[in-house]
Amino acid sequence: MKKIVLTTLILSVSLFARINVVASYPYLGKIVEAVGGDNVKVKVLASPKFDPHFVIPKPSLIPAIARADMLVANGAGLEIGWLPPLLKRANNPKVRIGAAGFVDVSRAIHLIDKPKAVSRAYGDVHPEGNPHFDTDPHNVLPLARYIVKHLSAVDETHAAVYETNLARFSSHWKGFLKQFDAKMRTCRGKKVVQYHELYNYLLRRYGIKPAATVEPLPGIAPSSKHTMALIMKMKRMHIDTILQDPYHEKKTAKFIAAKTGAKVIILPHDVGAVGGTGTLEAFYNTIAERLCH
User: What is the CATH number of the domain that holds 168?
Assistant: First the structure.
């Protein structure tokens, strides 16, 4: 009798235990929560208030990684400067790079902007391509499917539940995309300047032309020479919109706007990056409202 009770208890604990998932960025945490449901406990490592390239690898993040059953990373080199040191110190074989529990979602995306050559002379380039694919909401479903594939491998007991959650989320997201696409139609053909090439996936999707960047090269602060040349180019091409992310300095964009009459639009780069963007839907709706109002 004791054996039966003990076996039942073990099965019950196994059945209802949640798996620990660590996500590198907030948008990934939201997708994991959507498809994982009650069977996952999610911890996000990076704050959306700061540059995603340069997250401080705080020791306080190590325990969550040490306990993780799965780690979901953006990949494409975005975490290269901060995640490996944390993985090394956490010493968790489940989520080491190459392990079943380490999920690089960039593998689910066709990356754009792959450099022809990699050199410091070209700034902080990403050899694999542009890692900022989260700004295009059409990439959410491929990411969700990829995450579910790996969730089901790590937690086979709930594989059917994850597939059901994915189907429900997919139906909801397809409806959301129809509404979002309609909002973005008024932007087609628009020419913009970005501070950093954060929004290329979004701009390409909706026929918006990225004409230049405030940065002369990725990760390189704007010089006076580059800024003046950019002002002349914007006047010549009649560009009246500057896309500014929340974390880079804003002084240069404001100066250029004052000289050209352009408007500076602050766009979030991740869930929670600006006020009122605490969900995936709110994140993307804020982009549409600010860019295509």
Answer: 3.40.50.1980
